[in-house]
Amino acid sequence: MTTQITVTLADLTRMLRESAGEEEGVDLDGDVLNTTFIDLGYDSLALLQVIGLIQREYGITIPDDAVADAETPGALLALVNASGATTD
Amino acid sequence: MSTAAVVTGLGITAPNGLGTEDFWKATLAGESGIGPVTRFDATQYPSRIAGEVPGFVAEDHISSRLMPQTDHMTRLALTAAGWALQDAGIDPAEHAEYGIGVVTSASGGAVEFGQRELENLWSKGKEYVSAYQSFAWFYAVNTGQISIRHKLRGPSNVLLTEQAGGIDALGQARRCVRKGTPVMVSGGVDAAICPWGWVPQIAYGLMSTVNDPERAYLPFAADASGYVPGEGGAILVVEDAAAARGRGAARIYGEIAGYAATLDPAPGGARPPALGRAIANAVADAGLVPADIDVVFADASGVPALDRAEAAALAEVFGPGAVPVTAPKAGTGRLLAGGAALDTATALLSLRDGVIPPTAQVAAADPEHRIDLVTGDAREAPLRNALVVARGHGGFNAALVVRRAA
Known about the structure:
Chain A is mainly α. Chain A has four helices and two strands; from the N terminus they run βααααβ. Chain A has a single domain (about 5-85), classed as ACP-like (Non-ribosomal Peptide Synthetase Peptidyl Carrier Protein, Chain A, Orthogonal Bundle).
């Protein structure tokens, strides 16, 4: 049986903390869906790191452009969840 | 008259003490931080002894944002740099944007981090390699992370002259101060206690295989058997003397008064060995004569032939037994790119307190070396000028003279 995967904001913030830490003065548990990654203290390498983790955890492939295109957690989640990722 | 470059801050992470005063207390007491390797399983290797920094909990010193992107080596370096700036009473935000630079020494880069990512690559695949591997392993990573963390945008470099690097970095820091950068954060911190850091050193054949922490590294002793590697080092704040006085610096440990570096001839080469020339040039660069040097912090290889060469170089410049010689690194192991920086910090503490720390663990020098090696108890003495000597594998020689603040 195949199920469509949905990555939630809570999943993403957990993976951000795990792969790139949390900037002092930033509360990832707050309303960060539309806050830019730059304002959250994450640079492109941090994004590369978390995207790598998402790919490994969910077994999906995310295009390299995502690092440049997804400027906010909301945009990244939309991209990930639209990738049609499935699990068996 | 050139601008004087003085040291106004110290930060130390060493196997026999985390923090300047813990280190200095242990060093004066001749306490050793050398013991069995715990950072990796060394049981299959011929050398199984190292100097590891005790009690370092990285999370206490490094932000969660920096943890995934830093090696143990860089975490130690960032900790030492933070302490050095604090000790100097410098808040970078109060200084000119390009007024503080960074120059550190490195040897193999962050090999523990690099090894882990290579293991991820070959055992799991490229998806498992950290994006931070792109810079975390790099020789310049300590310089870069110190610069970024404290927003230091002045001239920044890294120097690789193997174990002589700590002195060469301080020489470069002095050069930058003379060229007009008021403050330089300098020195070196290294850590390579992992298989990738171990194997090349085994290949050189200079590491001790006497796996007894009390007998493995006995520089200048009759039963010297090679060296023991260690981790850690020192970061020093080097500052324009006038600028330091102008801002009311709390303390001036001393002046970087003389510096010189030379290269040995290639094996079988016609030139004589060049260590003596580095020492003589550093003394002359300080405007001194050999009789002005009150104590020598030796390179102290622990390899008998290299100990003989250093003793001969010292005799060539000073005369046999004419100056007290010490090697506190016998209690830390050789800290690779961090060793000479730690020796310089130790020399400055020696000048501050008028006391020469002993060569830990060594009962007496081999009489054949004809050196006045300080062993057993620390030796009190009026000290004005100290010489620090360092050698790096591949022919690097460096010497530095530090002068007590007037």
